[in-house]
Amino acid sequence: MDNLISLIRSLGISGTYLGYYYLCTAVALVLEDHDRLLMISKILYPKIALIHKTTPACVERDIRTVINLCWNRGDRERLCQVAGFRLQRKPTNGEFIDLLAAYLQNHPDSPTGTI
């Protein structure tokens, strides 16, 4: 979990946004079961909403907010390093969660800021 938090913070996303916490939970759940990415709206968002006592719509919106923050004001170069390729457009919620989960699976012991 420390690697996940370090990774998200390295992208310029801080704990002052609810989406930060929802994103942490989303990535952790996807790391447990990657198939959750196949039904984000029907399975993943409701599960996160239940954990955080909110609604799936709030989860989706707040994750989208931190992705926008990362894309517009965060470390886009670091995001491209995490993705493994140059991103031509802002990733969707599902793509962003998948990028982070795949990076953590492929770099489980990576310290913050390095590949």
Any overview of this molecule?
With 115 residues, this protein is mainly alpha-helical. The protein has a single domain, classed as Arc Repressor Mutant, subunit A (Orthogonal Bundle). Helix content is 67%, strand content 0%. Helix 2 crosses helix 3 and helix 3 crosses helix 4.
Instruction: Report the radius of gyration as a whole number of Å.
Output: 13 Å
Spans where pLDDT lies below 50 across 5 or more residues: 111-115
Largest sheet: none
Which homologous superfamily in CATH is the superfamily? Winged helix-like DNA-binding domain superfamily/Winged helix DNA-binding domain
Intertermini distance: 17 Å
Q: Name the beta content range.
A: under 5%
- Helix- and strand-based class? mainly alpha
The CATH class label is Mainly Alpha
What order do the SSEs take from the amino end to the carboxyl end, as H and E?
HHHHHH
Instruction: Tell me the domain tally.
Output: 1
- Give the quaternary arrangement of the chains: single chain
